[in-house]
Every structure is written in C-alpha cells, then in structure tokens.
C-alpha cells in the first residue's frame, strides 16, 4: 500500500474540486461519475483485462517493438531514453507523472532512478484508467525496496497511483516537474486531448517525454495502415502531430527520434 506521505503529497497536487477516495489497495480514485463511461473498443477493453496485468511486462509490452523493427531499442534502452529526456538527473526534478502507467513497471523504474540519483524527496505518480493494472502496480510497489550505499529506500514512500481519466488529469496547471507517456497514446480515446493535458500540468522548465506510433513510408501505404487499425481502437499518428503541438506551446529543445513505426518525442516547457 502507498505510504501516507506519498498519498498526501499527491493529493496536494490536485485541483481543489477533485474528489479523491483512497481505496483499500492504496490507489487514489479520482474518477467522476458524471463523466460517463470511457470509449470501449477492443484495445481499451484489453487494457482492463485482469490477466494482462500479470504478463504485461514480459509478453505484451515487448510486442510494441514490432513497430520499431528488429533494430529498434529494447525496453531497457527506452528506459534510458526516458531518464535522459525527462531530466531525472537534474536537481530540479522532484515530481514525475507517468500517464497510462499500466502495472507500474515504468513508474517504479523512474522512482528507482531518482533514488539512485540521491533524490530522497522525489515523488513519482502513476495514473491509469484500468483498475486491474493499478491493483497490480500497488502490490508490486509495496514489495520493492532499494538498497545502496546510502541505505534502504522503500519505493512505496515515493510512489503513488491514481485511478482516473487521462483526458481530464486531476492535477493543477504546472504542478509536476516531468511527465511521460510511453506506449499508450495510441491506445487511449482522444489522444490529442490527453497530450494537451500532459502539456498543461507540466511546470515551466519541466520536461515531457512520449513514445508512440508514427506513420511511415509512402502516404498511400501509411494512410491505409492507419485506417486498417482504427476500428480496433489503435491510432497511428502523423510525423508532425506532437512536435507541432509542442512548438505552438512554446516548448524548447523539441526532439523527435523515429525507429520503424514508433516515435520518441521530447521537449522542455518554456
């Protein structure tokens, strides 16, 4: 279960009108009943399928590498990208938000990276819309203790999980130092609305990192592929969809790296 301090720190970042209930598993539930049900095509239903939370990191998550080709980065390399792109080695990074965190594998890695950098006051918040995924995330985080030359760190002291809709993040404007969304935007309903929320909650000077799909090849082929997968709930994005948003929002150091049919996009909010 999440430490009470991590829960209280997370709640302090919420908008004043945000309802929040601490569930028995330690997850903060901020869902608003009046928002109604979320879109539920095959891809979204799969993410709420309980058994997937158990095999996600070992079986399901590596399947995304098919989009990147045989020479694409491994999950470990993706994590290295995230540490660099989010500026986790910078002294100013204290609060990190991991949107669509699934069973928390990536969330815990970010917390471990901050602990390794001596950031004892860091907080990493994972947000997802799937109850089974977050239940698994909370259980696994409770069992994780890091030991190094400075002593032991219980990750539950520095990690909190939030059950909510990424299209309406509960956080105040400019309340987090870094925000990431890896291998998820192509699955969520209204992905550009979610992306706008990532930009909104990031503080000036904070960094954003996203990894998702991208259209490649001749326009006819790329459009056909995007159309073919759309009924399943998957989205294949244009090469400029995210970089254009960041440039319009005044982001600095905007960078895009493309591997196969996947893209990594990062930037720093002015």
How would you summarize what this structure contains?
The chain has helices spanning 4-12, 42-47, 52-60, 65-68, 75-85, 105-116, 131-142, 191-201, 219-229, 241-248; strands at residues 21-22, 28-29, 95-99, 123-128, 145-148, 151-154, 159-163, 176-182, 202-213, 252-259, 262-268.
Q: How are the SSEs placed, and which strands pair?
A:
Blueprint: H1 4-12, E1 21-22, E2 28-29, H2 42-47, H3 52-60, H4 65-68, H5 75-85, E3 95-99, H6 105-116, E4 123-128, H7 131-142, E5 145-148, E6 151-154, E7 159-163, E8 176-182, H8 191-201, E9 202-213, H9 219-229, H10 241-248, E10 252-259, E11 262-268
Parallel strand pairs: 2-7, 3-4, 3-8, 4-7, 8-9
Antiparallel strand pairs: 1-2, 5-6, 9-11, 10-11
How would you describe this structure to a colleague?
The chain has a 9-stranded mixed beta sheet with strand order 1-2-7-4-3-8-9-11-10, sandwiched between helices. It is an alpha/beta fold and 270 residues long. The longest helix is centred in the middle third of the chain and has 12 residues, at 105-116. A hairpin with a 5-residue loop joins strand 1 and strand 2. The chain contains 10 helices and 11 strands.
